[in-house]
């Protein structure tokens, strides 16, 4: 039967399946009403539910996480190219992953530690005092991230980066889940839920499984994130990675791993991994006595020069992306004045991270939404990356995903679909 109906329609069939799910280990279905005869259908019972606004959905699969690995569930979604929502409920905690044809497009949680404001604090984009202040003024009739942009607390680019990191954190948290119930729902995500965040489900899954295995290894030496490290004296003479240098400079005998991650603007897992390696190499140790004296990190040898690149190929890559940016600009221009379209897209260049700031120095999207090619390639030459084409493509993709994110939040569905079709044709030129 259809997946739509009113609460209470043919309750006997739904109740029988409800009991069957309980026998399979599902114990807590209180947030939902059961509908239907042949299948179990859910409807959120309260607006605070993460599924509020989602169309009534058929349950494809449900069960207890004690009996199945979350990674296997996500792999099933990816391999089957399903469009739907994976919901996990563990006591009062709810998390969802939204998929479109097997690809992750959105995630949500009611865990306050994974809300966008907390993520932005951890990334160092805002501080706790700013978050508390904006929360007091927040009207509640829009997303708080958008409200922060409206208040000019953050730029649209910072919001995009924050949402992207938030989705990653929720996804990796999913993989660590081993308690509670799960529901795989065949559902159409609520309006505005689908985002272009440059995240591939298969790559995330591989990274997440690896992180989970590594985390178990790191926890043998570093049991919690509350651990405080001190520098050892004297420091070994050994070459360090950029992340190791960054963390070592911040180790002060007072800050725990969570605080060091915030100060360094690194993912908490990356900070933990870096500290583990620093401890293994003899640079730091867990503080169990009075803090030791802080020494300067050892000198690190400079990076090797860049490999020669084909200038014509680099120009071709830039030209293709300029065509893509121009398409996005034209689509936005139909929704706002030309100056507004450029301003929206150029918000990407505010507060760039160092690696991108070098490449995009002195650049903005100008006439018809294009970058000045010669300046870009000159900056690329000065940046001297080891793989120029890969570095350039990665940076131009970040600008692309940001612009698409801004455009799709303003376009009608038909306009968005037409834009993505034109972009797809242009992207095919990159594979030549």
Task: Write down how many β-strands occur, each being a DSSP E stretch of 2 or more residues.
Answer: 9
Instruction: Tell me the number of helical segments per DSSP (H or I, 4 or more residues long).
Output: 16
Helix percent band: 40-55%
Mean pLDDT: 77
Shape annotation: globular
| Weakly predicted, low-confidence segments | 1-18, 24-49, 289-308
First-residue to last-residue Cα separation: 47 Å
- Give the topology string: H per helix, E per strand: HEEEHEEEHHHHEHEHHHEHHHHHH
For the largest sheet, list the strands in their spatial order.
Answer: 1-2-3-7-4-5-6
Explain what the structure shows:
By secondary structure, the chain is an alpha+beta fold. The protein folds into three domains: 11-214, no CATH class; 226-286, Arc Repressor Mutant, subunit A (Orthogonal Bundle), CATH 1.10.10; 311-431, no CATH class. 47% of the residues lie in helices and 12% in strands. The chain contains 16 helices and nine strands. The protein has helices at residues 11-23, 70-80, 116-122, 128-137, 144-150, 156-175, 201-218, 242-250, 257-264, 268-280, 311-333, 338-346, 354-359, 373-383, 388-408, 413-427, and strands at 32-35, 41-44, 57-64, 84-90, 93-100, 103-109, 181-186, 229-231, 284-286. The strands form two sheets. The protein has a seven-stranded antiparallel β-sheet with strand order 1-2-3-7-4-5-6, sandwiched between helices. It has a two-stranded antiparallel ribbon with strand order 8-9. A hairpin with a 5-residue loop joins strand 1 and strand 2. Helix 2 packs antiparallel against helix 7, helix 7 packs across helix 10 (268-280) and helix 8 (242-250) packs across helix 10. The longest helix is centred in the C-terminal third of the chain and has 23 residues, at 311-333.
């Amino acid at each position: 039967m259809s997946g739509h109906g009113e609460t209470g329609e043919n309750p006997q069939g739904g109740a029988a399946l409800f009991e069957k799910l309980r026998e399979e280990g599902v114990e807590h279905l209180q947030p939902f009403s059961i509908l239907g005869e042949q299948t179990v259908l859910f409807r959120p019972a309260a607006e605070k539910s993460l599924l509020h606004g989602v169309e009534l959905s058929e349950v494809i699969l449900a069960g207890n996480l004690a009996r199945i690995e979350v990674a296997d569930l996500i792999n099933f979604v990816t391999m089957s190219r399903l469009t739907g929502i994976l919901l996990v409920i563990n006591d009062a905690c709810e998390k969802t992953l939204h998929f479109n044809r097997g690809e992750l497009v959105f995630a949500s949680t009611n865990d306050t530690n994974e809300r966008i404001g907390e993520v932005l604090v951890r990334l160092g984009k805002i501080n706790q005092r700013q978050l508390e202040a904006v929360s007091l003024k927040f009207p509640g009739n829009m997303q708080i991230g958008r409200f922060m942009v409206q208040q000019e607390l953050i730029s649209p680019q910072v919001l995009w980066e924050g949402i992207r990191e938030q989705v990653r954190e929720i996804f990796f948290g999913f993989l660590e889940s081993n308690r509670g119930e799960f529901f795989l729902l065949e559902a159409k995500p609520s309006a505005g839920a689908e985002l272009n965040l440059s995240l591939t489900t298969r790559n995330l899954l591989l990274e997440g499984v690896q992180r989970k295995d590594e985390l178990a290894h790191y926890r043998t030496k570093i049991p919690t994130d509350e651990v405080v490290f001190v520098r050892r004296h004297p420091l070994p003479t050994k070459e360090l990675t950029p992340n190791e240098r960054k963390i070592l400079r911040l180790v002060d005998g007072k800050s725990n791993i969570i605080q060091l991650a915030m100060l360094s603007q690194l993912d908490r897992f990356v900070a933990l991994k870096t500290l583990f390696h620093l401890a293994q190499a003899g640079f730091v140790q867990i503080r169990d006595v009075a803090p030791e004296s802080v020494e300067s990190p050892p000198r690190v040898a400079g990076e090797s020069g860049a490999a020669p690149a084909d200038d014509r190929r680099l120009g071709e890559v830039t030209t293709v992306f300029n065509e893509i940016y121009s398409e996005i600009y034209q689509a936005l221009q139909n929704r706002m004045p030309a100056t507004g379209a450029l301003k929206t897209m150029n918000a990407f260049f505010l507060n760039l991270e160092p690696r991108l700031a070098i490449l995009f120095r002195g650049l903005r999207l100008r006439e018809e939404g294009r970058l000045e090619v010669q300046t870009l390639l000159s900056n690329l030459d000065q940046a001297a990356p080891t793989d120029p084409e890969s570095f350039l493509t990665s940076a131009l993709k970040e600008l692309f995903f940001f612009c698409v994110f801004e455009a799709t939040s303003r376009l009608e569905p038909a306009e968005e679909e037409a834009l993505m079709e034109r972009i797809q044709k242009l992207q095919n030129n990159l594979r030549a």
